[in-house]
């Protein structure tokens, strides 16, 4: 028996992530992950990890400003997703962003694109994003 086991307990890294479903005129904005990133070369709903002492909404505002150069004005909680990857556990705090200023662009060099919700099932997403895709397709 091999000693290579999947650690899911206290030793596994945990990430709490604020995620934005940026919604405008029946379309959602997605970012494309670089191939060298975890779950790379896939589309994702933009966002990032919370910093110590930060609220989810504050993290969402900060991350979307850093990644997309937009300022979130209004957003509501949409759902939470817990997912266990072999190397880490993630908690995605997903918010529907329905009010923002600025023109979204890939500040970090990533591709960004608007998609109709009906197109989402044709795209490749990280595994943890599948419940988000299913929920957004119902909007």
Task: Outline the structure in words.
There is one protein chain. The chain is mainly beta and 139 residues long. The chain has one domain: Nucleoside Triphosphate Pyrophosphohydrolase. Helices cover 14% and strands 39% of the residues. The chain has two helices and seven strands. Strands 1, 2, 3, 4, 5, 6 and 7 form a seven-stranded mixed β-sheet that branches.
CATH architecture: Alpha-Beta Complex
Give the helix tally: 2
**Average pLDDT for all residues:** 87
Distance between the termini: 47 Å
CATH fold naming: Nucleoside Triphosphate Pyrophosphohydrolase
N-to-C order of helices and strands = EEEEHEEEH
What portion of the residues fall into strands of 2 or more residues?
35-45%
- Strand tally is 7
Amount of helix: 10-25%
- The number of domains is 1
Given the helix and strand composition, which structural class is it?
mainly beta
Largest sheet: 7 strands, mixed
Shape: globular
Radius of gyration: 15 Å
Unreliable spans = 1-9
According to CATH, the homologous superfamily is Nucleoside Triphosphate Pyrophosphohydrolase
The first-level CATH class is given as Alpha Beta
